């Protein structure tokens, strides 16, 4: 997920540099949305680990 955030941020910067303001804003919004999802999942994982004492390993 962090790779996606960094990728969309770099795309937003490049698009802004070349003058595509609308596209840069869209990429920035996508990066912010993914970052919020990442933080929420991270906090949920921490709380799960504190309550149960186990890792949250999904089956593969």
Secondary structure: helix percent? over 70%
Q: What is the H/E string?
A: HH
Rg computed from alpha carbons, rounded to a whole number of angstroms: 16 Å
Q: Strand tally, please?
A: 0
Topology:
Elements: H1 2-17, H2 21-52
Family: Belongs to the UPF0391 family.
InterPro entries: DUF1328
Transmembrane segments: 6-26, 33-51
Describe the overall structure.
With 60 residues, the chain is an all-alpha fold. It has one domain (2-52). 80% of the residues lie in helices and 0% in strands. The chain is built from two helices and no strands. The protein is elongated and about 50 Å long.
Q: Which descriptors would you attach to this protein?
A:
single chain, 60 residues, mainly alpha, transmembrane helix, UPF0391 membrane protein GCM10011273_07630
